[in-house]
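User: Here's a chain of 261 residues. Predict its fold as tokens.
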Amino acid sequence: EKADMTELQDFVQNKKKFILELHDVTPRFSDEVTAMLRLADELGAGEPVILWTPHWPGREDKGPDRRFAEFIAARAGEIVLHGYTHHAAGSVWHKLLYGEPAASEFKNLKKEEAYRLLKKGKSQLEDWSGKAVDWFCAPRWHYGKGTVTALQELGFSGYFEKNRLVFLDGRVLPVPVLSFDNGTRKIIDSVNRRIRRKQVEQLFACPRLFRLALHPRDMNRPVIKKEIEEIRDRLQRDNWCAVTALAINPETCDNSKRNKW
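Assistant: Prediction complete.
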């Protein structure tokens, strides 16, 4: 048992490994998804984790895009249900702060509604892709208690939080996330870029497993895309290795706080 723990501590803390997550995957962003997949290839992550939103607003009545679904299924190392519409009833405050509608779709749902959407979304993605969908990531990583209960009742393996992967058998794998999607307000974006610079320097100074989260909007913002490309170049130069998130065995997981920013 002690040997197992030492092995995972070494895996999480001392190895140059990262998990590539492609968020907000939907036919509406097909061009951006293609660009993210090109980056995945450049990073040696040919089978990234695909966070797929089945019904992004504007496509609800169009049915599945089978060609897109086949394309994504062929590239996915793992398919994760990422909300149902990725949109929520928002406040004026949220719009003022981030410059966009609220996205915390599952934050305040009652269990019954969360159960209905999770069951429907899981079934649809499995039908469209031909692959099992056993993991969930709530938009903005915001969960209500009802959502977690519904995930357990539906037999999901686990869910993604902002800085950890939670297995529903009780195990937890702390893995910090590096994300570039912070709304459209310049001041918020500027603050987050400064924070990310510190995070990146910490990662390269003391390598450990982390998650690199890309969003379609990142591909259309030159400043952000340049930032991502600089990180790509450093990962390549320092021989970091992409791993499939859900192939990681959490049994040897080091639950210390050293994995957090």
